Amino acid sequence: MGRLDPLWDLLFPPKCPFCGGLLEKGALLCPDCQKDLPWLTGASGEKAVELTGGCVAPLRYEGRVAEAIHAYKFGGKSARSRAFGVLIAQCLADRGTAFDLVSWPPLSPKRRRSRGYDQAELLAREVGKALDRPVVPTLAKREVPAQSGLTGEAARRANVLGAYAVLDPEAVRGKTVLLVDDVVTTGATLSECARVLRLAGAEGVVCAALARAR
Question: The pTM is what?
């Protein structure tokens, strides 16, 4: 926006995506959230996901984090993708995760039209931008019930079995694909995506999310 940036910031001051507090110029989070959010470190920030190299996440899905993600997904707060994507990118960089391209588990066409955007895609694009890696749509999804409405790993696995298809096998053949999502719970969605990607010739799949549910 160039010379209009100061005016834009005056009219629409940047706010912390987790609490809504005003931010200092260039900051992603306010000082309180930087200090008090449920950050994950070491093994607590890693989750084993079948058929992948695991999923890393910088935050626990609780409190302010859960509220902020819910507003991001269902409340039209798509602009939060930038800050959230940078947090995921920082987590990946800190852990030295290696991959060739960035992708995401997509919404079904019907759900994307209803929501107006795909929250995982926006995160993936911000991660790719932050880490200077290509972002490629690799998967399509048919309509199935939302995972958030299901309890138990078995139910979640059964719900997504066969829900995804690879768009272009040539785009993933011999590559390590990073799948980016907002929340990892049981890992069933990421595991099913990894299964079809590897059947299509992907060398490997690694995963990252903004938050890890208990």
Answer: 0.89
Structure-block tokens of residue 116: 């107006």
Crossing angle for the helix pair 153-160 and 188-199, nearest 10 degrees?
40
Q: Which helix (H) or strand (E) covers residue 127, if one does?
A: helix 119-131
* Mutual angle of helices 81-95 and 119-131, in 10-degree steps: 50
- Tell me the per-residue pLDDT of 121-159, one tens digit each, with 9 for 90 and over: 999 999 999 999 999 999 999 887 665 655 666 676 676
CATH number belonging to domain 40-212: 3.40.50.2020
Q: ∠141-144-150 over CA atoms, to 5°?
A: 125
Task: Provide the residue ranges of all domains of the chain, joining segments of one domain with +.
Answer: 40-212
Ramachandran class of 61: left when φ > 0, alpha when ψ lies in -120 to 50, beta otherwise: beta
